[in-house]
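Team,

Forwarding the record for the chain on the shared tracking sheet. I've put the sequence and predicted structure together so nobody has to dig through attachments.
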Amino acid sequence: MRNIPKRLTLALVAAGVWIGVPASSAQAQIAWKPCADGNEIACGHVTVALDPSGAVPGTITLALQRHRSSVGDARSAIIALAGGPGQPALPFTESFDELLGPIAATRDLIVFDQRGIGLSHPLSCHAFENPRLSHSVGQLIATCASQLGPTRSLYTTADTVADIEAIRQAGEYDKLVLYGTSYGTKVAEEYAQAHPSHVEALVLDSVVPPNGPDALNRPTFAAVPRVLSQLCAAHACARITSNPTADLRRVIARMAGGTLRGRVIDGFGKAHEETVDANELLDILLEGDFSSVLRAELLTSIAAAARGDAAPLERLVALVSSGGGEPEDFDSPLYYATTCEEVSFPWNRAASAKTRLAQARKLAAALPAQTFAPFTANDALHAGDIQECAHWPSSLPAPPLDETPFPNVPALILSGADDLRTPTANAREVAAQIPDAHLLVVPHTGHAVLTGEPGDCATKALRAMFSAKPVKPCRATPAPASPRPPPLPPRHLGQLSAAPGSHGLPGRTLHAVALTLADTTRQLFLRLKDVSLTEAFTLPTLRAGGLRAGWAEYANNGFALHGVSYVPGVTVSGIIRSERVDLRIGGSADAHGTLRLGAHHALVGRLGGSHVVLPADSRASAAIVDGNAQASSDAAGGRAAAVARIRELTRLLPWVQP
């Protein structure tokens, strides 16, 4: 699923296609030479036919990188495929090598930017460089297709499959191991179907089936209730909700096809009116494939909205929508050139955009309501690429149903139990077509299993399969330090109990302070999720607005809170550093007073004339750090940097509730 408004600001580099002597196959050999940044990885190029059928003249040069096997001249290679379509693979060569190292000892590892991406003649549309010149998304898509011209139909999965075969021939490999993640699995599957005799094994992580993705994203909608229920396993949602799916249904019903409106406090303490619609809720659910803390926060926010308090949900939507969207090197024209040409959309390809949309609406409306529940058919029409691709002038006929058999080769098929982008139903569909496939469903994991699992079940399975050992299923154990959904935000101070060891209004106020600090920590962490490897260390200031009022910032190894309010009528101001804490507690409803750093890292002080103590709790910091680690950043290595930054944050706040 894609959300085009997040990608309208992408500035894509210019690209071209070499027009010259037709090439029906790749050059005979690849001239490898050390890449500029070291000797471990070699760089090379393969020139392939623009049109593998030979009907259209011209060539494209594909950029490749190779990590050579440790045994010398390997007769087989691993082809590592990135997601997308539209994501370059070369930036991840070292990550692929580290991930697949155990199976690469006797095989070369080949990584390449697929045609139209990265260093392999990236597609470019001037329309995407200046999206404001288009009056609508439909006009933008139609203009881009026109600018790409008649060769826009030559960037399908089948064309990439032909390129892989050309790479195999040029590299003089007998067999290939195909490793793909997300869209990369579809490429791997289609290569295996087209060239079965040259496939040694398949490793498919987060599966898109050969006839997928479904234009209405029905597998995703079907998986939503299951994934929400899994979040509440082991009483994780006690005192929050007994039925998260019912809460989501109630919130969507309140929207009545429109939006909820609410007030959001920004990182400078200013209030703004924000709206949230059903598709933004779905976007956050999908973002949760990479962030367990985000999904946990969403569950509580939905529960609060279902009970009439939309502020947490409005704030979460504003935070996610302010993120960077797709990476800068993501090629949106290539995404649409592939998706709009080869997905089986529910319309006549010769029809106008208006007629296409009408046909799609008719089909969606005819499906049982349960197909999309708790969302609706209208939500499904706006969730994927139907609105955009309806305006794409199709150059190819509708794809036929692909029933080509798979080769009976070793296959490891990985699915995250919490994955909504490519749900486990997809993996089961493909596994059923490969007699000796090992299907591994990995608990507490979203999209991209091998890089996102909290444990090592999938990694062990990968090593086992390539060492002729049994592939063991993952144990259904509680997630290590999994972030639990935070408690429902109180609507007033009277809803809170007194903090342990205290009583009355001072005790309830102390409890409110602890909740405020916990919320501040989570919000600052969530703002780290989109930063790069370098920014995770060097970002000068992190800011977050309070739920009800005020704002907080993290800078110079310390916190500053400016009238932050999480519980109505209670505000927290002051500074928090490792060696010093000075907090002033005020507001219209609480016991006023001050708190400072005491013995054993406890917060001590007087509230409403009473002595209070808030002891440190090391479990809280561990839960925040370890539970959030898997969500923290880019696959190329930003995770470690972001986790280090989170440790800096949480060591200053040892009093928050885990």
